[in-house]
Design brief:
The complex is a heterodimer.
Chain A lengths: L2 E5 L5 H10 L4 E9 L28 E8 L12 E8 L15 H12 L56 E2 L2
Parallel strand pairs in A: 1-4
Antiparallel strand pairs in A: 2-3, 3-4
Chain B lengths: L1 E2 L2 E5 L11 E7 L2 E8 L7 H7 L6 H5 L6 H16 L5 H29 L3 H22 L8 E2 L2 E2 L7 H23 L3 H7 L7 H6 L5 H4 L7 H4 L20 H25 L10 E5 H9 L29 E5 L6 H6 L1 H11 L10 E8 L4 E8 L5 E7 L1 H7 L1 H5 L4 H11 L3 H5 L1
Antiparallel strand pairs in B: 2-3, 3-4, 5-6, 7-8, 9-10, 10-11
The chains are: A alpha+beta, B alpha+beta.
Chain lengths: 178, 438
């Protein structure tokens, strides 16, 4: 699989992506993030003093890197007209990213997953929901500083409340019949 | 007069939701106005786990992704890891991997069609197709010793060669599978009860399919013949002859027909592979022979961790044992590939080698780099994006689950249909919670 990689600054990410979309990249194949905070720094275990016998790779300037993987699929032939593009956006903890939900519909869930797993916020999605984990979960597990064996506090109905989901069998407000 | 909408929970443990997923349906009468899909009930932190285990130890976790076609996941992970390491599997190993993938794909499609038909009332079809799947599971059991938790592919090859009599066994069961599939097709494809439930239901337009990044049989049912095996050929798929069945309307019926046609194509692929497969090694060698003095240089520059495993006996004379006195002296250097099981169980050195490969900080390393490799899974493009920092473990493993993209589009598919259609449409998604939630 051939793809070219483009690195874009955080502020220009949305413009670049919408330009690529206009150029015919109609498929957002994948969107994910990488946490480089432990890159080349992971300690060895089992009594070994060093984990990188051939030299540790250089650390990155920014903590996170977002990876947008785009393809331009020709609906007629099912082949890809142009080589795939991997857009990489290095960003720090508090950068203001824009959501690409308006360009590709599946970005909705993928951005929710990135928020869920890495805690990266999108400026125009202030009330973004977690995708895989529950709302009471503390922390973002795919960050490198999240310990593998960390336990989460138990959640459950507070005393006196009924167990059960809040949306179960609740009648919403009435919609006038046109 | 006013109109009331109300909510209905479907799942997470509903008889028609094979797998744990919760749909919150907003209904007006029996019509679905809105759907909210809640996933994550089977989240097992696959990606985090894969970062904490040595390269070869992460492969068993991939079995649990799409547990209906685990062999494809094994192969996908190994191909991505091999791409970073720059390894190419011997040709026989590539053919074996294709066979494993296609057998798995048939099992995957059989399960999907069978379960879908059962939920629509065709229990006979379910039993027929489960019988066919059972034949394949026995074949997979022969191949790798397990029916579901296969763990068959290895970085650099496969666990073992095909067992004796594999080809004959496959040739014996292929007609049986074809017969069972043909019987099921005869029961379903022109069956009015089945057609009424699936025809024109859960329609996905081409535009939505692309907007949601849907791939696999689901996208092909809308008429877009995108198949990773054709668009980005991997292994030996470019040498094999297979058709890509497509639908036209993108409804549940087309998805059923596309999967049915793909079963036949996959069986054909296995037959071709068994015919064209060359003799030779199935995996790369577990040991590389290298100039012994390279290791001496390595030790002098401070990298001594692996030296105790690279011993060479030189004949010491008064002249010394320097580089010029023993030219061409070769030493075994452990490669990334796991040693064959015969060696592990046959000698104490083999057993020690096996342990060293799977121990933290001991196991072989993949140089720093990253790779994305996609394979055609049962539900679509199954991508593995792996980042290595040169240590004994993967730095980041991202699995692109094909189900996730279909499930994201589910509200669109269900909108405006009846509650009863949820079962038919959801069944055709072939959602595998292990892959969806990782």
């Amino acid at each position: 699989m051939i793809f070219e990689t483009r690195t874009v600054a955080c502020a220009q990410a949305f413009d670049t992506l919408s330009r690529l979309k206009a150029e015919g990249y109609n498929l957002l194949v994948d969107f994910t993030a990488l946490d480089y905070s432990a890159y080349g720094k992971r300690p060895a275990s089992m009594g070994w003093e060093q984990n990188f016998p051939s030299g540790a790779p250089a650390p990155r300037a920014e903590r996170f890197e977002l990876v947008y993987r785009l393809a331009s699929l020709d609906p007629g032939t099912g082949l890809e007209a142009k080589p795939r593009v991997e857009v990489r956006v290095p960003c720090g903890e508090g950068s203001s990213l824009l959501s690409v939900m308006s360009l590709w519909a599946n970005a909705d869930w993928l951005e929710r997953e990135v928020w869920d797993m890495f805690g990266i916020k999108f400026a125009d999605r202030p009330d973004i929901k977690r995708l895989l984990l529950y709302e009471e979960f503390v922390g973002h597990p795919l960050r490198k500083d999240y310990p593998v064996k960390k336990r989460q506090p138990l959640i459950g109905p507070k005393s006196g409340e009924l167990a059960g989901s809040p949306s179960f069998n609740i009648v919403r407000q009435e919609i006038p019949f046109e | 007069m006013t109109r009331k909408t109300y909510f209905l929970n479907m799942g997470p443990a509903h008889p028609a939701m094979h797998g744990v997923v919760r749909l919150i349906l907003e209904l007006e009468g029996e019509r679905i106005i809105n759907t909210e899909v809640e996933i994550g009930y089977l989240h097992r932190a696959f990606e985090k786990h894969a970062e904490t285990e040595t390269w070869n130890n992460a492969i068993p976790y991939t079995d649990r992704l799409n547990y209906v076609s685990p062999l494809i996941n094994n192969v996908g992970f190994c191909l991505a890891a091999e791409k970073i390491a720059g390894l190419t599997v011997p040709e026989r190993g590539q053919y074996i991997r294709v066979i494993a993938c296609e057998v798995s794909r048939v099992a995957d499609h059989l399960t999907c069609i069978g379960a879908n038909a059962m939920e629509l009332g065709a229990f006979t079809v379910f039993l027929y197709l489960m019988e066919a799947r059972e034949l394949l599971y026995r074949l997979i059991d022969d191949l790798c010793g397990a029916r579901v938790t296969t763990d068959y592919a290895r970085i650099g090859g496969v666990k073992a060669d095909l067992p004796a009599g594999f080809a004959e066994k496959f040739r014996a069961i292929a007609p049986q599978i074809r017969k069972l599939v043909a019987d099921s097709e005869a029961l379903l494809t022109k069956n009015r009860i089945f057609l009424d439930r699936v025809e024109g239901v859960g329609v996905l337009s081409r535009e939505d399919g692309l907007a949601y990044g849907i791939t696999g049989p689901f996208l092909r049912s809308t008429g877009i013949p995108y198949d990773v095996r054709r668009a980005h050929p991997y292994l030996v798929y470019d040498r094999l002859d297979f058709d890509i069945p497509v639908g036209s309307r993108g409804d549940n019926l087309d998805r059923y027909l596309v999967r049915l046609a793909e079963i036949e194509q996959s069986l054909r692929l296995v037959e071709q592979c068994l015919k064209a497969m060359p003799e030779g090694p199935h995996s790369l060698a577990a040991w590389d022979m290298k100039d012994a003095f390279n290791f001496q240089d390595m030790g002098k520059s401070g990298n001594t961790a692996l030296l105790s495993r690279c011993l060479a006996n030189t004949c010491r004379t008064l002249e010394g044992a320097g580089r010029d006195k023993a030219p061409g002296l070769l030493v075994q250097e452990p490669a990334l590939v796991m040693p064959p099981k015969e060696e592990t169980y046959g000698s104490i050195e083999g057993l020690m080698n096996q342990f060293e490969r799977v121990m933290w900080s001991w196991g072989a390393r993949i140089p720093a780099g990253e790779a994305y490799h996609a394979v055609e899974g049962g539900n679509g493009e199954l991508g593995s994006h792996i980042v290595s920092d040169g240590s004994d473990r993967a730095y980041r493993v991202r699995c692109r689950p094909p189900c996730l993209f279909i499930m994201a589009a589910l509200p669109k598919l269900l909108k405006g249909s009846y509650v009863a259609d949820v079962v038919a449409t959801f069944g055709s998604v072939n959602m595998i919670a292990g892959e969806l939630d990782r």
